[in-house]
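Q: Could you fold this chain for me?
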Amino acid sequence: MIAHEVKPIRSDKDHRQALKEIEQLWNAPDGSAEADRLEVLITLVDAYEEKHFPIDMPSPIDAIRFRLEQQGETTDALVGVIGPKSQVLQVLQGCRNLSLPMIRRLHERLQIPAEVLIQPPRKRRTSRAA
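A: Sure. Below is the predicted structure, expressed as structure tokens.
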């Protein structure tokens, strides 16, 4: 394969071409010119996708529930971390915001990034009978 010049990814067409080339280079031997090119292309694609296809962080509550599920634990594991069971339920239902001490304990106990936990709460949807 003849290597052509690596250029920034500026369009969806460039993105598709880079992904196609990455697929072709995927099993390149370590230390080879192809492996170096693969690494550069992956970096370029990552930068393009981060800019054009951003992924929102999960809400603090979604992150807590997900981490509990990952660890095979129930919400009872949050008693003492967030506070008593009534406080845990209030937080998980969106009726109570996380305090700074709660955020610190959740970060330590569940290893959830602090930047996820400190996000402002999202508006709850309420359904009203007409």
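A (continued): The domain at 60-117 is CATH 1.10.260 (434 Repressor (Amino-terminal Domain)).
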